[in-house]
Prior knowledge:
alpha+beta, Ubiquitin-like (UB roll), 5 strands, 15% strand
Amino acid sequence: MSEVAFAKQFISSLGQTPAKLSHNYVQDATSLSKGSPFILPSMATPMSRPKATAAAIPGEEPSVTVKLLSLRNPRFEITLPAQPVSASLLELRQAAAAHARLPANRLKILHNKRLLSDGQRLRDVLGLDDEGAPPPSTMVEFSVMVTKGAAAALPEEEAAAPVKSSSNSEAKRGAEAVAEPQFWTDLNGFLLQRVKDEETAAELTTVFKNAWESRSAKP
Length: 219
């Protein structure tokens, strides 16, 4: 049997099969079982409604609190309250340089790991297109990156301090270096830079210090 003959025979056999339901079939409603309707369970925690942002007073420029954070040496944190959204990133960079006693050209301002230029303003970073539109948040956080070659100016107290002799300024090594309190302070700063949490960094520093002291106490 050829393929064409087989196809014709198969189609003709399908045409002889009676259809179970016609195209205009409607089931009688009286024959349906009367059951209770299914109701979806309520949520355990209701969804919170979005909080409406207070609109700015007409004629007054919106302002935000700016937080400048540097996690590398030198580490510092600056909070600039009530900064107008028209403030430029250059002004923020100059404020960070004055606080850290560093050259302004050695600092870079980043937001969400994106480098910002001096010509940009807070309005551009917050995405405020309309004049007088309220900012989406009352605080914005920036990261400060210190480039290589930047040396912080010493405070007057440190500059007036006498210079120690070379024999006393030699760095200690081995167990003597670990016994210094500055070692654990530096370790805590390194851990804080990695984990980004003060409590976790302090806990890890305590664990390492206790383990070292218990090891040193063994005969």
